[in-house]
Amino acid sequence: MKPLTTVEEATRLVREAINPLAAELVPLAETVGRILREPLRTDRDLPPYDRVMMDGYAICSASWIDGQRSYRLSGEQPAGSGGAQLASSQDCMEVATGAVLPEGSDVVLPVEWSEQKDGNIVFKVPDDVRVEPWLYVHRRGSDHFAGTDLVPIGSRLCPAEVAIAATCGYPQLKTSRRPKVAILGTGEELVPVEEAPASYQIRESNVHA
């Protein structure tokens, strides 16, 4: 009787026989579970703009440091639009979470810290909060700059990596082709399913699973 091949030796032999599969372009929605054959790279800064982190009001920090607490409301900046600008450092602008920070402002004060009084917006900030530049602002490029590799070649694509690809503008990805797998039944005790086995034999079943 021949000695059995160890698991380690069998694994080594299989790996030595494997050749890299050809690459193919696959629609993004069909890439989960595949092996990436190109790096996923940011096509722009992330976030791509100074992004508001709280519903509230954008102000200029210099005015706050100078002692101003009451501001004239000069407009609003919803998410999904741009181009807003503070008329002056004495003004504030209503902003939504995810919106572009209006030009001329560098601080967002949450709506919970505000009240309307005599037509103006008056702020009362908690004692343990220091109002300084970029409070509640997610700075442009603070996560990643344009051209940064986020997912390397050879990575297995999970939902998180697919989401990154979508964020970076990949409608399709270069991945390895799926391998074709064949199951072989071996053993002197096996007989085809259509034959009657002897008392010392069994029907071959794994190849049909």
TrEMBL record:
Q: Which Pfam families match?
A: MoeA_N
Among Gene3D superfamilies, the record links this protein to:
MoaB/Mog-like domain, Molybdopterin biosynthesis moea protein, domain 2, Molybdopterin biosynthesis moea protein, domain 3
Record-level Gene Ontology MF annotations:
molybdopterin molybdotransferase activity
Q: Which SUPFAM superfamilies match?
A: MoeA N-terminal region -like (SSF63882)
One GO cellular component term: cytosol
* InterPro entries reported in the protein's UniProt record: MoaB/Mog-like_dom_sf (IPR036425), MoeA-like (IPR038987), MoeA_linker/N (IPR005110), MoeA_linker/N_sf (IPR036135)
UniProt-listed GO biological process terms: Mo-molybdopterin cofactor biosynthetic process
Q: Where is the MoeA N-terminal and linker domain?
A: 6-169
Q: What is this protein called?
A: MoeA N-terminal and linker domain-containing protein
Q: Which organism is it from?
A: marine metagenome
